[in-house]
């Protein structure tokens, strides 16, 4: 069907109106509140322990307190308390495999840790759904598992829409020293459109209390 000039102008006007409405819309955030993020934040204790600090950050969020040293021991299969702890990068797929099915005892309770590494960039909807459920997601900014740099997504900024929320912005924390973080309360803010270019992998860590 061929549109007449009036119909064409009307469509263009509607598109411009919608674009301006979206541009001027106030972002709404869902995820872990700033106070809780600061409470569970874990700064890496060694130059190459950023991945251990990121795991500790996530476990802290689930109220399971465990040290970076214990995460290192589990990851490298160190059982002798007198052995020195390694301080070098490790293939994160191996770390995830060793974290998976880990049973942690904390405050007389047992918790089962499960971990999954996905070798693609997460979708905006996936991040929105995870953060709405208060589940932080570890994002990796490299395509090599031997040199992955982890960041933790703690909140998603979105625009409420007629057909559902439209994710627009990510609130990111890093366990690196604060010099790499933004001046905005230690957060790094990412435009969600840049996600496919920034991120090549992501990791989900879940915690379940055992009876």
Report a brief summary of the structure.
The protein has helices at 5-24, 34-40, 50-61, 68-76, 92-99, 124-132, 195-198; strands at 28-31, 102-106, 109-118, 137-140, 150-159, 166-173, 188-191, 201-210.
What topology emerges from the helices and strands here?
Layout: H1 5-24, E1 28-31, H2 34-40, H3 50-61, H4 68-76, H5 92-99, E2 102-106, E3 109-118, H6 124-132, E4 137-140, E5 150-159, E6 166-173, E7 188-191, H7 195-198, E8 201-210
Antiparallel strand pairs: 1-5, 2-3, 3-8, 4-5, 4-8, 5-6, 6-7
Helix pairs in contact: 3-4, 4-5
Structural features, described:
With 211 residues, this protein is an alpha+beta fold. It has a single domain (27-210), classed as Cathepsin B, Chain A (Alpha-Beta Complex), CATH 3.90.70.10. The chain has seven helices and eight strands; from the N terminus they run H-E-H-H-H-H-E-E-H-E-E-E-E-H-E. Strands 1, 2, 3, 4, 5, 6, 7 and 8 form an eight-stranded antiparallel β-sheet that branches. Helix 3 (50-61) crosses helix 4 (68-76) and helix 4 (68-76) crosses helix 5. It is elongated and about 80 Å long.
